[in-house]
Design brief:
Blueprint: H1 9-32, H2 36-41, E1 46-52, E2 59-60, E3 66-67, E4 88-95, E5 98-106, E6 116-122, H3 124-137, H4 141-145, H5 147-151, H6 159-167, H7 173-187, H8 192-199, H9 206-217, H10 222-232, H11 237-250, H12 253-265
Parallel strand pairs: 1-6
Antiparallel strand pairs: 1-4, 2-3, 4-5
Helix pairs in contact: 6-7, 7-9, 8-9, 8-10, 9-10, 9-11, 10-11
Length: 266
């Protein structure tokens, strides 16, 4: 009798269950390795749905209102809405095998839809990969719209990939601008140097460089202001103008000192 045949029936049953789960996982992993564009191509028309856990500080009302942390969710009236801490939900509208629209929600639940294909609750890393792949390959608005939900994935560091997208001139300018904006929002002081370098790279589209200036203005602490001060003192006049604008908007006393210095020397 074989060694397997000598095992008690309960153990054999458990082993069979584990093997079935493992095989199912392999099949699921293979399926999920497909890009969103690949999935859309097999659908014709419809809606692709995916969900994943939101990072700390992200919540929403299940509709279009999403808080990413830091700002009060309350409105200016006596009415307020519940803010659910996830999951992130992305709906990709598909027409003739191509993704034509992308909407992001946090919280709530999917309504029944006859043409919907629900990919289920994905691991945050897998969802971020799908979305960033779409951002890199789609030439229209869905690619741009894929950046934001990728930044909401729990436990995932996406800023190095956002920086790659921002620098890649094969990607549409609008998508690169959006990547630059969220780069500043997510990474903060950790990428101030990278953003400053991006503003001075003449190989990069002007719009993307201007977006990097704005991203610096959004950073907390000294790193953003110090970088803007350096940019305002030299380099491309168009970029200097943007830096001056955001310095003026900051109200920082160092900005006022710079303006006085420039005016006194003129």
């Amino acid at each position: 009798m074989s060694a397997v045949g000598q095992l008690p029936a309960p153990v054999l049953a458990l082993a069979a269950t584990v093997m079935a789960a493992w095989l199912a996982g392999c099949g699921s992993g293979t399926a999920r390795a497909q890009s969103l564009a690949d999935r859309a191509a097999t659908m014709g028309d419809g809606v692709l749905l995916l969900s994943f856990a939101a990072r700390e500080g992200v919540c929403g009302d299940g509709r279009g209102n999403i808080r990413t942390g830091g700002d009060s969710y309350r409105g200016r009236s006596i009415w307020e809405s519940d803010c659910e801490p996830g999951p992130v939900r992305v709906a990709a509208k598909v027409r003739s095998g191509g993704i034509v629209d992308l909407d992001t929600y946090v919280g709530g639940r999917w309504a029944a839809h006859p043409d919907a294909t629900d990919l289920g609750m994905l691991e945050p890393a897998a969802a971020a990969r799908l979305l960033l792949d779409l951002a890199r390959t789609d030439r229209g608005e869905p690619g741009e719209d894929a950046i934001f939900p990728a930044t909401l994935a729990r436990g995932i560091v996406v800023w190095p990939e956002l920086l790659e997208i921002a620098r890649d001139d094969r990607i549409p300018t609008e998508t690169r601008e959006d990547a630059t904006f969220w780069l500043g929002q997510m990474a903060g002081d950790a990428v101030a140097g990278e953003l400053e370098e991006l503003t001075g790279d003449e190989r990069v589209d002007l719009e993307v460089r201007e977006a990097a200036v704005f991203a610096l203005s959004e950073l907390n602490g000294d790193e953003g202001i110090e970088a803007l001060l350096r940019i305002a003192r030299g380099g491309d006049p168009r970029i200097r103008e943007k830096a001056m604008f955001w310095l003026a908007d900051s109200g920082d006393p160092r900005a006022l000192a710079l303006f006085e210095e420039i005016l006194a020397g003129s």
